[in-house]
Each structure stands twice: as C-alpha cells, then as structure tokens.
C-alpha cells in the first residue's frame, strides 16, 4: 500500500499536479523568481543565509523581471526579483486579485554599464549619443569618433527589467523613440557581454556586476564635459554616474503569516544587513543608499512589523 501511495505521488509530481510554491502553507521553501540581473546576487545571498539556517530552503531562478512579476501575480512564487519598478497595471492586477498592494524592498544598487569591444577606440559617450545609437539615429562609429564601421547593437529581451529601464531612462527621453529594429535581443547580461567581446563593432548595456576584462566600459556624461565610469565608487556614491537604478524585490503582505512568514521576513532582514550588503559588494553591485534605507523603513518594514 505504501508503495502505491509513493507511486501516485511520483506520478503527480511528474505531471505537475502537485502545487509547489507559496500556496503550500506547510512548506517552508521560499520561491524567488525574476530579474536575470539579480539572479546571481540573490543566489549568493540565499546560499549564505541557508548556511546560517540549514533548515531553510530558498529556490532562486531568473527569466526576467516581467516573468517574475507575472509569477507573483499568479501566486506561483513568494518573491519577485525586479531590476525595474512595477508598472501601475501590474500593481492594479495584484490589488484586484488579492485586495492589497505589493510590498517593495530595495536590496542593492546597480550601475548599468555601456560596453564595447576592447579593440574599439571609443572610450566615452554622452547619454544623448548612447540614446541615439540604440534608437538607430547614429549607425556608424565614425559619427562618435570611432572607426568607419557599422555599429552592431546588443540588448535585452522585452521581458527584461533592464530592457525597460534603459529604454525609459536613456533611449526614449533623448530621442522620443524606441529601440532600433536592428538591435539583437539577447537573454541576459552574460550573453550580451560575450557577444560584444567577440564583435569589434558591438555595443551593449549590462549590469556592473557582469563586467569582465573581455569587454571595455565606456565612460558616460550628461553634459559632454564630465565623464564617469560605473566602476568609480566615489562618482557613484555622489550620484554623478548617470545610469543608476535600484534593484528590488516584491512580495505580498499575506506571505508574512505563520512560520514561513517569519523565515521570509528574516531573509529580507539578512539581505539588507551589514553582512548581506557585504555580499552585495562582493557580487559586483553597490550597497543601498541612505535614502533607500529610509524608503524601505517607511514603505516596507513599517507595514510588516
């Protein structure tokens, strides 16, 4: 009889009939899904937390910010990683379905780096030039002081929060347009990095945590006079690097109930603790700012404690 029960359970798992995720109130597993920019960082944080709390299981996966937010809306996960803020339409879906608004916690800061092949002589661009390049208004490197060669664009897929952030904060404000139809949409930061590394005429944008010696970081300027690198910690802390964004996680208030809720709350505390923020730095990102901590206190912690 026990073998029969066992075989039935295996069959149910194979066909996906057993619910896995936050709706399983007996499970202490925490499911996190979303931003590919955040996936390695959150995996590092989860691993460190589980080493300190061996009875806890945290499952982290990527797929893009939009994918994670959709999974949160559908009740499939506990936490959505996002490299962009939720859209009003997404918040409205959660309000209609759950009768509450999502909670947002800022866990790190990211500087989006504009990168080119190391053989490319171009080492600095204005934000306006970057925008025009990705909108397809500038199509040859000689137009920005480089070689007489066509520019190859590499960007993210439309489900990516990085795709939307770069579009709304860089491309569209300066051109009034969307991305060029010639841009090659790749799955993640690593894919863009590798593509630019192998293409002398390539240009892309990636999270600073994914930089390597295989590509060259372009300094960026707002005014055409002062150029800054996302690797310049002082410039970043002073807010001088122009392509900066918060990295956040979204969850729902009802997920803080019971023992699993306490575990989830404790993990969030760990992420923004001194130890957690050290892992943020070691993962190639920047710790949250004082203003981020104040925002978290007013809009996250005050609502769950």
Automatic annotation (TrEMBL):
InterPro entries: PBP_domain (IPR024370), Phos-bd (IPR011862), Phosphate_ABC_transporter (IPR050811)
Keyword match Heme: no
Record carries keyword Signal: yes
MF term (GO), any: phosphate ion binding
Pfam families per the UniProt record, alphabetical: PBP_like_2 (PF12849)
Segments forming domain PBP: 29-275
Annotated keywords: Signal, Transport
Superkingdom in the source lineage: Archaea
Protein name listed in UniProt: Phosphate binding protein
């Amino acid at each position: 009889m026990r073998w029969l029960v066992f075989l039935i359970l295996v069959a149910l798992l194979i066909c996906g009939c057993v619910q896995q995720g936050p709706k399983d109130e007996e499970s202490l597993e925490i499911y996190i899904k979303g931003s590919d920019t955040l996936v390695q960082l959150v995996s590092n944080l989860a691993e460190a937390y589980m080493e300190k709390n061996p009875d806890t299981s945290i499952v982290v996966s990527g797929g893009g910010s939009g994918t994670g937010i959709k999974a949160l809306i559908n009740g499939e996960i506990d936490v959505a990683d996002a490299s962009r803020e939720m859209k009003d339409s997404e918040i409205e879906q959660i309000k209609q379905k759950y009768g509450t608004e999502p909670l947002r916690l800022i866990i790190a800061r990211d500087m989006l780096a504009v990168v080119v092949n190391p053989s490319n002589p171009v080492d600095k661009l204005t934000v306006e030039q970057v925008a025009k390049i990705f909108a397809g208004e500038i199509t040859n490197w000689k137009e920005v002081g480089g070689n007489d060669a066509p520019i190859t664009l590499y960007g993210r897929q439309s489900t990516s929060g990085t795709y939307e952030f770069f579009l709304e904060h860089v491309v569209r404000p300066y051109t009034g347009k969307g991305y060029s139809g010639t841009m090659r949409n790749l799955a993640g930061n690593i894919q863009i990095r590798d593509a630019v590394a192998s293409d002398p005429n390539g240009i892309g944008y990636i999270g600073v945590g994914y930089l390597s010696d295989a590509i060259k970081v372009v300094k960026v300027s707002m005014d055409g006079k002062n150029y800054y690198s996302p690797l310049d910690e002082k410039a970043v802390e002073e807010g001088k690097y122009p392509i900066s964004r918060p990295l956040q996680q979204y969850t729902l208030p009802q997920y803080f109930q019971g023992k699993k809720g306490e575990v989830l709350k404790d993990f969030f505390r760990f992420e923004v603790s001194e130890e957690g923020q050290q892992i943020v730095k070691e993962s190639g990102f920047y710790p949250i700012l004082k203003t981020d901590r104040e925002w978290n206190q007013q809009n996250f912690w005050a609502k769950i404690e």
